[in-house]
TrEMBL record:
Descriptive protein name: DUF2849 domain-containing protein
Name of one Pfam family that matches: DUF2849
Amino acid sequence: MSRRFTPKVITANDLREGDVIYLTADDRWSRNHSEAELIDDEAHAEIRLIHATRQSSDIVGAYLADAKSGPHGPEPVHFREAFRARGPSNYAHGKQAERHG
């Protein structure tokens, strides 16, 4: 019996700035997890990951991360990905500064 595929998003880090980024359905890289393409087919996920890893002049460390559908787009499933989506752990810069500024 085959295992059920868990939906995924493709995440990486911006090569120049180091920010966590997500591949969108229209082939952009976004800093917002909710804009990521939610992929629910394993073969399509692998094809999209190959596409992402070929962008080595812009990104580093692309991988598939488990996600689920949410009211505003994909949401992280695991703590690690939720932490990465929130940004740095201090408020002086990055995504968290934008929320608290």
